[in-house]
Specification:
Chain C: One of its GO terms (cellular component) is plasma membrane. The complex is a heterotrimer of chains A (about 500), B (about 300) and C (about 350). Chain B has about 300 residues and is an all-alpha fold. Helices cover about 70% and strands about 0% of the residues of chain B. Classes of the chains: A alpha/beta (about 500), B mainly alpha (about 300), C mainly alpha (about 350).
Chain lengths: ~500, ~300, ~350
């Protein structure tokens, strides 16, 4: 008995085929993992099921009957609920108002709704405070509101898009318990993830997607993590790894007692101190939302620290603007590459935007120099574009290459790379990692902020772990284990003794 | 002095009436996420339609309600542009103002020609609840529409906070993605909010021609729409704030009129400019206007 | 109700240049109803709008006269919009320029035009920039929405002008509230004999060309466009977003001020309350129609001047109310805006 059947789903975005004839079947009362790397098409497929995208081809059956889902409203009516990565809650409304949003009726009896919400949350063991504005809740609480919202509308199918990315381990455990209870109530869950161990813990069946195709559906009991990994990646990955240890030739980036005020819905940074040596990659690991974005922004000049000091080489750059940082020798790879390039301007213009003074004479732009610069960097960084191509038409990988070209071509002393390979395909990922290691080999200090532990282990000489904006400790990569890093990511600080050891190493 | 005060209060309520209509209209639009700079033109259109229908049919109320209906159409057109198509709200709104200003003047000239004496009608009379001679008579004996306007304030607050439609309007104005995901039709809700808003704006305009003046002139609205835009900020996007804002604005304008008629030699322009300057001051003090709907000015479009 | 949704598609390249033509066609189709209501022949009306103003020397010159302030207000608005600064205040900044012109003109008796005209221009530019300064500094320092502040200041300056013209600046010899006539040395010279076309037209064309050069070929222009198209990206690249917007806002105000000076020094020779009557708002239309490109703005200003002139001869010749011109402009604006969106999207039934 299937709750949902999706047959031959095709979805194109411009030239990109995100879903290429995917078949997917969800049984009643199962937790079904949708596993795949970033960009494999998992989220696209589920956004289609939830009516956020319209498929170009293919059919959807609910309970065996073909349906047309044009909007979330249709999906809700068909008994489908979805919790997306970015929560779809209205921060100014209360929990009860958010949960009742979208229901029919004309009057709003808040008291009755709050009672109903509390009854439901009691029954499902999902505690929430019905009268609180959602904007005041923690991320884990907001996720619970999202789940309740779907269930309050009698969803029989619940889609969770990377639900653990924003959670700390304890919250993950609580979530898994909730999912287990839902399964017993006969609700089917689609669990989108790229984390093998989670999938093996909580799911009954697994469908693996790769490059927009479904490459197989397996029972959990009949598979192993390594088989799933092979299906996911589909090739023997050698990947890019750092080679050898480099002798220390001095500190290039020093951060001392850095504090950043917490903003709405985000953690701040609390008393961070660390150093990055020349020729070293310092990886910053952590569960998403524990201050990585803030750290990247502070070191890029996009966010002002409350207190603390930052040096590049011997020059103090505390509170410096992006332009001052660039002049001081900081190359910055931003987390949000789309928002960090001007989409409507050309590749050539974007490549000179941070150094216009070198491309103008007597207050006039030297168009020939701008173009020559673009031609040189396009060739050097293998950017698939012409100098006059607008940035917005580029793929994510090529955008990242533009950003790399702009910042790395000036041979910076310090490289700040925030989530540099997120959302890129395998080829582009290897390319970016290779470029970062090239900087290390050249003698630059590289700060690599990444949520991809494999990436950190492959590239970093030392690993720092952030938890709720605090540094849990720094380890030498060759002495670190995944378990130990995992503990630190969950908020267990490294023992004092081993910190000293790492410093000496 | 007492007579002066009573007269002033009475005038304040009268002057505030069109401002309340317009501001509540703009409130519906902005709470749904759309800045409607078409307000100035929609009020002008309301004044024109109200006057024309009333003068041709002989019924003031028919004129008023036709104006409201046409105002709703204007709101629908704004929604087509700014919501369905998602064009720039500033420019679309100003375009609407230009359109309705031009259209109203065009229509007025065609229907009434260019007579020496501008055409007029017998306007709405004030209610006579108390004899005019009694002390509070002038304050209490207002136009029926003035009472309607003041009743509309709590009604708007009630609609926005105690009905599902109001919840939906607030949701699409704060986070349309969330509203969409909750199964709401963002376009439809914004369209409805703009239509209600347009109706109210036109109602405010019709008050000017049907109650205040009994005529339609080129300068009948004279920037009142822009005052409403300012009032929204002053009111911090809350219905109850509209009451205080409209009373203060109305009070200053009425005071200016009364001082002028008393023959005081004051630069009355300063009084007229004062509310604008106060609004700018309020904007500065409010700082980053924290209470503006988060999705204001942002067109919503699904991927 | 038919529901539709927009789906992003890449527009065919040949479509963009056709937008003005399609917009014009749609606009005329939509206004046909009004023309029929006025009892006129639509074809004749379009003849008066598009052909008649171009068919005689007198009419053509009148089009250029009307285009003169529009070139400047359009350029003013386009300049600010390019940097993502939504200056709705060209109307007020124009009045500021006109006030400066009227004021300077009172003191320039006996001064030669060689000195007088540059002084007038400098004064007008400065006054426009000063009037634009408040909203600009509030935007860049305190993040106060510039749309509302510039809009409100448009009304404020009208009260100021009204006060001056009914009080301290009132010309004693005139029946109407207006300032004294400016000195001869402050007059813009005429470009042609027996015609109102004046030096301001040259100023307008020059500003258009300079603006094009600045936007396309200077670091300031590239910075402005980067800020206008992506504030965060510009900031990330190290541009000073606030300073760039401030500079754009002040120059924009200055250009609008030049438009005000032109009306005083080239047409009226004194300040009157209705000296603009919407020229600044027309600037927003023109900037939009011109796609924020200076040359597009130049063409749009000429076109709006054409419609304005056409509407006047229309009302004289056919008795169609002159306001048809306003309606045509408004519809043209709204249709063009819609087409700009639709060129990147395709309607799909949902």
């Amino acid at each position: 008995m299937f709750a949902v059947q999706m047959q031959g789903i095709v979805k194109r975005f411009g030239g990109l085929v995100a879903n290429d004839g995917i078949d997917f079947e969800l049984k009643v009362g199962e937790i079904h993992a949708l596993l795949g790397e970033n960009g494999a098409g998992k989220t696209t497929l589920m956004r289609i099921l939830y009516g956020l995208y319209t498929p170009d081809e293919g059919e959807i059956l609910i309970g065996g009957k073909p349906v047309r889902i044009h909007s979330p409203r249709d999906a809700i009516r068909a008994g489908i609920g979805m919790v997306t990565q970015h929560f779809t809650l209205v921060p100014t409304l209360t929990v009860a108002e958010n949960i009742t949003l979208g229901e029919s009726g004309s009057l709003l009896d808040l008291q009755q709704i709050e009672t109903k919400v509390e009854a439901l949350s009691g029954r499902l063991g999902i505690p929430v405070k019905a009268g609180t504005p959602v904007g005041q809740l923690s991320v884990g609480e907001q996720q619970r509101v999202e789940i309740l919202k779907a269930l309050a509308r009698h969803a029989r199918v619940l889609i969770l898009d990377e639900p653990t990315a924003v959670l700390v381990p304890q919250e993950v455990q609580a979530l898994f318990e909730v999912l287990d209870r839902l399964r017993r109530e006969g609700i089917s869950v689609v669990f989108i993830s790229h984390k093998l161990h989670e999938v093996m813990t909580v799911c009954d069946r697994v469908t693996v997607l790769r490059d927009g195709r479904a490459v197989g559906t397996v029972e959990k009991s009949q598979t192993t993590p390594s088989e799933l990994a092979r299906l996911m990646v589909g090739r023997e990955t050698f990947g890019v790894h750092r080679q050898g240890e480099r002798p220390s030739t001095g500190v290039l980036l020093r951060v001392e007692g850095l504090n950043v005020k917490s903003r709405k819905g985000a953690v701040g940074l609390h008393h961070l101190s660390f150093e990055v040596q020349a020729g070293e990659v310092l990886g910053v690991a952590g569960v998403s939302g524990n201050g990585q974005a803030e750290l990247g922004e502070v070191l890029s000049g996009m966010l002002q620290p409350e207190s603390g000091r930052i040096w590049v080489g011997t020059q103090e750059v505390t509170g410096a603007s992006p332009a001052e940082l660039t002049r001081a020798g900081v190359g910055r790879i931003p987390e949000d590459r789309h928002a960090s390039l001007v989409g409507e301007l050309s590749v050539a213009d974007n490549l000179v935007l941070d150094q216009l003074e070198h491309f103008s004479r007597h207050g006039v732009l030297d168009r020939n120099a701008v173009r020559r610069n673009a031609e040189r960097l396009i060739a050097e960084y293998q950017i698939k574009a012409l100098p006059e191509t607008p940035i917005r038409t580029l793929s994510g990988g090529n955008m990242q290459k533009v950003l790399l070209a702009r910042s790395l071509s000036r041979n910076p002393l310090v490289v700040i790379a925030s989530q540099p390979t997120r959302g890129l395909d395998v080829g582009a990922t290897d390319y970016v990692r290779g470029r970062l290691l090239e900087q290390r080999a050249r003698g630059a200090a590289v700060l690599l902020i990444s949520e991809d532990l494999d990436e950190i282990f492959a590239l970093a000489d030392r690993i720092a772990v952030l938890f709720e904006g605090k540094l849990m400790g720094i380890l030498n990569t060759r002495e670190a284990t995944v378990e130990q890093i995992g503990l630190m990511m969950a908020g267990t600080p490294l023992k004092r003794s081993s910190v000293k050891e790492a410093d000496r190493g | 002095m007492e007579i002066f005060l009573v007269g002033w209060v009475a005038a304040t309520l009268r002057v505030a009436t069109p401002l309340i209509f317009g501001t509540l209209g703009e409130l519906f639009s902005e709470r749904s996420g759309v800045l409607n700079l078409g307000i100035e033109g929609t009020m002008f259109l309301g004044a024109f339609i109200g006057f024309t229908v009333a003068s041709k049919s002989g019924s003031l109320w028919l004129g008023f309600f036709t104006a409201v209906l046409v105002g709703m159409l204007s709101g629908w057109l704004m929604a087509l542009l700014a919501v369905r198509l998602g064009v720039n709200q500033h420019v679309a709104g100003l375009g609407m103002t230009l359109l309705w200003t031009g259209f109203s003047l065009f229509g007025f000239r065609l229907i009434f020609g260019e007579p020496k004496v501008p055409p007029s009608i017998t306007p709405f009379q004030s209610l006579s609840i108390l004899p005019d001679s009694t002390f509070l008579g002038p304050v209490i004996n207002q136009h029926g529409l003035t009472y309607v306007a003041f009743l509309l304030i709590p009604l708007t607050g009630w609609v926005l906070h105690r009905t599902r439609f109001g919840l939906n309007v607030r949701a699409v104005g704060e986070n349309p993605e969330a509203a969409d995901a909750a199964g709401l039709d963002v376009y439809q809700i914004r369209t409805l909010a703009l239509m209600i808003g347009g109706g109210l704006m036109a109602g405010g305009g019709a008050f000017l021609s049907l109650a205040q003046l009994g005529a339609f002139t080129y300068g009948i609205v004279a920037g009142r729409g822009w005052v409403c835009i300012a009032l929204i900020i002053f009111a911090n996007w809350r219905a109850v704030g509209v009451l205080w804002g409209a009373l203060i604005f109305g009070g200053v304008a009425a005071l200016q009129l009364r001082l002028q008629t008393m023959g005081l030699q004051l630069p009355y322009e300063l009084f007229l400019a004062l509310p604008y300057l106060v609004t700018i001051l309020a904007l500065i003090i409010a700082g980053r206007n924290a209470s503006a709907p988060a999705a204001l000015l942002k067109a919503y479009r699904r991927e | 109700m038919v529901k539709f949704r927009l789906e992003r598609v890449s527009a065919p390249l040949w479509f963009r240049p056709l937008i003005p033509l399609i917009a014009l066609l749609v606009t005329f189709l939509l206004t046909t109803l009004l023309v029929l209501w006025a009892g006129a022949d639509p074809l004749k009306v379009y003849y008066y709008f598009l052909i008649a103003p171009l068919s005689s020397r007198v009419a053509l010159i009148e089009v250029l006269v009307k285009s003169t302030p529009l070139l400047l207000t359009g350029a003013s608005v386009a300049f600010a919009f390019s940097a993502g600064y939504w200056n709705i205040g060209a109307e007020g900044q124009l009045y500021a320029g006109a006030m400066a012109g009227a004021w300077l003109g009172m003191f320039l008796g006996g001064v030669s035009p060689v000195a007088g005209i540059p002084l007038m221009m400098a004064g007008g530019f400065l006054a426009g920039a000063v009037w634009a300064f408040g909203p600009a500094i509030l935007k860049t320092r305190l993040n106060v929405d510039e749309v509302v502040t510039t809009l409100l200041l448009n009304s404020v300056i009208l009260f100021l002008v009204s006060y001056l013209l009914n009080g301290p600046w009132r010309s004693p010899v005139s029946m109407w509230p207006q300032s004294p006539e400016i000195a001869q040395g402050a007059h813009y010279f005429r470009l042609l004999p027996r015609a109102r076309l004046h030096f301001g037209f040259v100023v307008g064309l020059a500003v258009i060309v300079i603006e094009w050069f600045v936007l396309q070929h200077t670091p300031l222009g590239l910075r402005m466009r980067a800020v206008g198209l992506g504030k965060k990206a510009a900031q990330f690249a190290g541009l000073n977003v606030n300073r760039t917007m401030l500079v754009a806002a002040l120059i924009s105000g200055g250009i609008a001020g030049l438009a005000g000076v032109g009306e005083v020094a080239g047409i009226h020779f004194h300040l009157i309350e209705s000296i603009s009557d919407g020229l600044g708002y027309s600037g927003i239309i023109i900037a939009t129609l011109g796609g924020l490109h200076p040359f597009g703005v130049g063409l749009a200003a000429f076109f709006i001047g054409l419609i304005d002139t056409g509407a006047q001869s229309l009302s004289r010749a056919l008795g169609v109310p002159v306001y048809l011109g306003t309606v045509v402009q408004a519809i043209l604006l709204l249709v063009t805006l819609s087409l700009f969106v639709l060129q990147n999207y395709r309607l799909r039934r949902a």
